[in-house]
Amino acid sequence: MKRFVYIITDRNRKNLHVGMCTDLLKTIKFYGDMPTLFFDSSQQLNRLVYFEEINTEEQAMARFQQVSTYTRMQKEKMIRPVNPDWIDLTAGLNFESGIRVRPTNYGRPSIPSARRAVTF
What residues does the GIY-YIG domain cover (predicted)? Predict the structure, then answer.
């Protein structure tokens, strides 16, 4: 079973949290559902900036322990070559897995479901 070692951060890139999981999308959803579990609300971890897919549990645990001991500068040196703008990688994962996220309607009028035929 594949394992993922990931680094997640808040919107200000103040905290870098290293984790390991088997289902990356479910884990990211968990962080979104429980925003104040690890930190207060201003430091909500919601931006996946780095992840590695590893085939075996032993290799994943060794890599997780290694990355967990890194300093902030070492973690940034890992992130910058693959994600220089520190964008959230969750959107790409959603696209790859075939999950369609429906955009929310922010105050725009909805389109009526039954349209009238226009006659001239």
Answer: 1-77
